[in-house]
Write a structure and sequence with these properties.
Number of strands: 8
Radius of gyration: 20 Å
Helix content: 25-40%
Number of helices: 3
CATH class: Mainly Beta
Strand order of the largest sheet: 1-2-3-4-5-6-7-8
Length: 142
């Protein structure tokens, strides 16, 4: 009976380990660091490229706002041109630009809000971010 218990425990450990390897392989590529912005009324915006650079996608989390999107991590499209970078998603079936950044300064637009919140790149906040932890939070929320 003791051999059966040890065999069962060993099998369970091997399955858990194999499951961890599979999950690690399924993690999408992300940028090495989080880029964060802070702004008026204590708002913080965290961004992280997800997938290959050519996919132009990012994870975006807004923090410190009285809104349904507070602390929600969303996958967004990213459009870069010579003048600005735009992070957008779909709201009610239409493209909605959430964050517009020019030269380190940006405007945060939230659905249902009358005007944007102004934000600026925050190096100190960016250094506090952990790309892999941010990705894990996003994957667990799905």
């Amino acid at each position: 009976m003791m051999i059966f218990a040890r065999s069962t425990a060993l099998l369970a450990m091997l399955l858990a380990l194999a499951s961890g390897f599979v999950q690690a392989e399924e993690r999408p590529e992300v940028a090495p660091r989080v880029v964060a912005f802070s702004g008026e009324q204590g708002v913080k915006v965290w961004t992280l490229r997800i997938g290959a650079r050519s996919e132009n996608r990012a994870l975006v989390q807004v923090e410190g706002v009285d809104h349904d999107w507070d602390m929600r991590i969303q996958r967004m499209d990213v459009e870069k041109n010579a003048e600005d970078t735009r992070y957008s998603t779909q709201v009610d079936g239409n493209k909605f630009v959430v964050l517009l950044v020019r030269n380190g300064w940006g405007e945060l637009y939230l659905p249902g809000e009358a005007k944007p919140l102004m934000v600026g790149y925050d190096n100190s906040l960016s250094e506090q971010g952990n790309a892999q932890a941010f990705l894990t939070d996003y994957l667990q929320s799905q």
